[in-house]
Design goal:
Blueprint lengths: L2 H4 L15 H20 L5 H28 L5 H38 L5 H15 L4 H15 E4 L15 E7 L3 H10 L5 E5 L3 E6 L2 H11 L7 H16 L18 H9 E8 L15 E11 L1 E2 L4 E2 L1 H10 L4 E5 L5 E7 L2 H13 L5 H17 L6 H11 L9
Antiparallel strand pairs: 1-2, 2-4, 3-4, 5-6, 6-10, 7-8, 9-10
Helix pairs in contact: 2-3, 5-7, 6-8, 6-10, 12-13, 13-14
Length: 415
């Protein structure tokens, strides 16, 4: 379109291209290409012929569209107003570009800082933490240690398996078994490392998260030997993939690991699982007088709760956690509950509240100790449980003691 013809109907100085059918035609051609490609993959009859036509259609639309773009570019359509607009757009584009890369750089720097924050733990800290662990709960019997770390792994652990074969960097990659927890659980992981004869290493991330990483062949084989046949959740599927990997790469002949179906009361698996996902807490309802906002007066009440929460699905294996959570609910003689988190994630929850059923909790953990910081929470919780049995919680002195114990448990615990 020439400027002479344009001036007959265009009442403004801005450049507008002529109406074009090619955008809608190209969209239709791409939709046809996608549909015929999927049909061809599913072996629909004559889908290949339609796929070829779709390719021709896309190429044709591209050719005609670019032909029009080139021809429009040759016309003298840039007015003074359009030129000024282009001059303004260039600095705006540069400013937007700089802002985008500034915020992107900030995010990258934060991630780098997080990586830099990862640090090792000194031998002195490990020794001190190990002594604390032994002081807390002595040690777990050798025949129970495998069950304990199996439960811990299934609660807070991860098994990472690399691909077999040569890599582009010619590096040898081994699997990694990673236990992740709060920094206060350093004594627990130091204890596990001592039982594994020093294999593995520690990392502290952001002064709040600790990782115990086992990535050498000796350590992996030790873990496989200890936990073989002792897992109860879908993580056993990944554990068996680990066994296959080690057999293929190192010519070992380890058999597959079967799910442990023995009674939960027969070993320390539940102690390890609770160390990862369990919670002992004291619930206190403060008294409230009747008011405009509170139609009924509320008296003070105290109760004990033991709770185990777990995701409904194991992500790596896309398997349901329902069987093991049903077993746990049956063991404690309670109903299995579900709820949805703010992130729309389904959670299975086992909650024990009545004193009669809490006796099952006390009987189990009196037999099978935990080694981490949660053992301290349990000991405080057990003290309050005994106070409930003796009716001390009904006295003012007893209630004050319970409040004092609660103030130092769980997230409020310092040592």
């Amino acid at each position: 379109m020439t400027n002479v013809i344009r001036s007959n109907f265009q009442a403004h100085p801005f450049h507008l291209v002529s109406p074009s059918p090619w955008p809608i035609y190209t969209c239709a051609s791409l939709l046809l290409l996608t549909t015929t490609a999927v049909s061809t993959m599913h072996s629909f009859p004559y889908a290949g012929n339609f796929l070829a036509l779709a390719f021709i259609s896309v190429i044709g639309s591209m050719s005609f569209w670019w032909r029009d773009v080139i021809s429009e570019g040759k016309l003298n359509t840039i007015t003074l107003t359009s030129f000024r607009g282009i001059k303004l757009k260039i600095p705006l584009f540069i400013t937007m570009f700089l802002f985008f890369y500034y915020f992107t750089a900030v995010k990258i720097i934060k991630k780098l800082e997080e990586r830099v924050a990862v640090k090792a733990i000194s031998k002195e800290e490990i020794t001190k933490s190990l002594n604390k662990a032994f002081h807390l709960s002595g040690h777990i019997n050798s025949d129970q240690f495998g069950y304990y770390i199996a439960g811990l792994l299934e609660g807070d652990g991860n098994i990472s398996i690399p691909a077999l074969g040569n890599t582009t960097t010619n590096r040898v990659f081994n699997p990694r078994i990673v236990f992740t927890g709060h920094i206060n659980n350093l004594p627990l992981y130091a204890y596990i490392q001592s039982r594994l004869k020093g294999v593995g290493r520690f990392q502290v991330l952001n002064d709040s998260v600790i990782r115990y990483i086992i990535g050498d062949v000796k350590g992996i084989n030790a873990i496989i030997e200890l936990m073989h046949g002792k897992l109860r959740t879908p993580k056993n599927i990944t554990f068996n993939k680990l066994i296959v990997f080690m057999n293929n790469k190192y010519n070992t002949s380890i058999g597959p690991s079967a799910l442990d179906t023995t009674s939960l009361s027969s070993n320390s698996w539940l102690a390890g699982f609770t160390e990862a996902d369990g919670n002992f807490y004291i619930k206190i309802i403060e008294p409230k007088n009747k008011s405009d906002t509170c139609k009924r007066s509320i008296s003070e009440s105290m109760s004990l709760v033991f709770r185990l929460d777990q995701r409904a699905f194991d992500k790596p294996t896309v398997s349901s956690m329902l069987p093991i959570m049903e077993d746990l609910a049956k063991f404690f003689n309670v109903d299995l509950n579900t709820f949805i988190t703010k992130n729309e994630q389904e959670i299975y929850s086992v909650s024990v509240r009545s004193l009669n059923k809490l006796s099952i909790v006390v009987n189990y953990f009196s037999t099978y100790n935990m080694t981490g910081i949660k053992q301290r929470d349990y000991l405080d919780w057990e003290t309050v449980y005994k106070m409930f049995l003796s009716k001390e919680h009904l006295t003012e002195t007893g209630r004050e003691k319970i409040r004092s114990i609660k103030s130092g448990m769980n997230s409020k615990r310092i040592t």
